[in-house]
Amino acid sequence: MTTYTYTRIFFCSFLLCILQACSSIFGLPSDPEKPTMGEVTSSTAELKNLPLPKEKIVIGVYKFRDQTGQYKPSENGNNWSTAVPQGTTTILIKALEDSHWFIPIERENIANLLNERQIIRSTRQEYIKDADKNSQALPPLLYAGILLEGGVISYDSNILTGGLGARYFGIGASTQYRQDRITIYLRAVSTLNGEILKTVYTSKTILSTSVNGSFFRYIDTERLLEAEVGLTQNEPVQLAVTEAIEKAVKSLIVEGIRDKIWGKAVDSNGGYEALINEYNREQEQNNGRAVGGKYPENYRQKVSVFANVEGQKVKDDYVGPKMNAGGKIGFKYFLTPYLNVELNGSYFTLENSNIVKRNYFGPEVNLEYLLFPKYRFSPYIYGGAGAMYSSKYKPQYKAQFGGGLEYMISRNVSLRASAQYDLGFKDNWEGLVNGKRKDQALRFGIGINFYFGNK
């Protein structure tokens, strides 16, 4: 073999070693794993730490199944795998055991149980003919005072999706996320008269994320270097279903204590007050919660004041435009949750290196549109008109449009980042008329926004 062939073999081997090392660094699986115990969720710990009842409640579950009939979403053709695990009855029974409040009895496969008991009776009658008949009788089956019904009633795909990425000179990175949601209803039914004693409803999001990086570069005329790395993580649907069911069981227990439906099982001196108060606070906080765990009532009141620090760069008839610092303060009044009127005053400097430098101040009026006013994080766009005043020069008039991102750091305070494009009505901001293009300016700003007033 030639030296070139040996070089290629060495390079490929070296690259494989690097990739194996990177796999270990990123924590990617490279060896088979031994079987382990099932994961314990945070809701499991909450169930196991509940105060114990005075006596356990015998409870039966005939069927707690997936009622959605939904298949896994697929981008490439049909997928006949179900989106929701089909063993939800088993998961519910395990949650009832973990709570230490209930004695679950077998009802899902009651036919198998009755058939086995019949085999036992037949065997005893055949082989123990002379024994006492009373000794051959099987103890009676437990019967349930309460039945649990319900199921998984919804699996919503892609309730939130998004991503972020950038690429420059052949080097790029990106991240994406997707959020699904599963919804569960659980109700307790009295076997005495069929009354529905309590119904609870819980939901759990399912998060999928991916991070990718790539490198693409020609290092010579006939040499191309390309590299990629990526990591995807999907929250298991089974764990999400388990957490939602465990949360439903806990809610059923606490509401049953609060509304006194468990009867003798609740000890009058059981110390349930702290548990009930914590649950009531959670219910109050949950009021008004939107999809995705957002609390829109806490954000963006009727009026706000803001202040920005900005950098401006002119696009005029001279060469050498220079970036300068400026600022803006203003006032917003919301006509609707989505739309507001903005009035602001700004100070900025337009400069061409060693040619001209002018300081301007002036008012602007804008209409601003928030895309997601019910969320903590929202893009926005705006547009309007304004004026520019400077000593010794005539006033100038312009239009502007822009957009940005707002993030609520508390109930009344947000951070903003924006980009604005100013378009002049005339071509003489710097005192020179040259060509057909009107004078323009580009601004970038960051600032803080304070909300107050009634919603």
Automatic annotation (TrEMBL):
<keyword id="KW-0449">Lipoprotein</keyword>
<dbReference type="InterPro" id="IPR005534">
    <property type="entry name" value="Curli_assmbl/transp-comp_CsgG"/>
</dbReference>
<keyword id="KW-0732">Signal</keyword>
<dbReference type="GO" id="GO:0030288">
    <property type="term" value="C:outer membrane-bounded periplasmic space"/>
</dbReference>
<feature type="signal peptide">
    <location>
        <begin position="1"/>
        <end position="27"/>
    </location>
</feature>
<keyword id="KW-1003">Cell membrane</keyword>
<dbReference type="InterPro" id="IPR011250">
    <property type="entry name" value="OMP/PagP_B-barrel"/>
</dbReference>
<keyword id="KW-0564">Palmitate</keyword>
<dbReference type="Pfam" id="PF03783">
    <property type="entry name" value="CsgG"/>
</dbReference>
<protein>
    <submittedName>
        <fullName>Curli production assembly protein CsgG</fullName>
    </submittedName>
</protein>
<keyword id="KW-0472">Membrane</keyword>
